[in-house]
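Appendix C: a fully annotated inverse folding record. The material below is reproduced so that readers can follow the format used throughout the book. The structure is listed first as tokens, followed by the designed sequence.
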């Protein structure tokens, strides 16, 4: 039996200045990690294409 939600209440408390901005080092690390992920994906795709051509 499906359940129907007729009302949804969302409460949030927002305060300014409590979050720390990311440091430049972590931004650089994130960019490097993204590049590594893209490079790994490219390697895998190229391997799949190579394998499909060999068949």
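Designed amino acids, in order:
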């Amino acid at each position: 039996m499906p359940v129907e939600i007729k009302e949804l209440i969302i409460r949030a408390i927002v305060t300014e200045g409590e979050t720390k901005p990311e440091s430049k080092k972590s931004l650089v690390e994130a960019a490097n990690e993204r590049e590594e992920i893209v490079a790994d994906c490219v390697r895998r795709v190229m391997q799949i294409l190579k394998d499909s051509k060999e068949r």
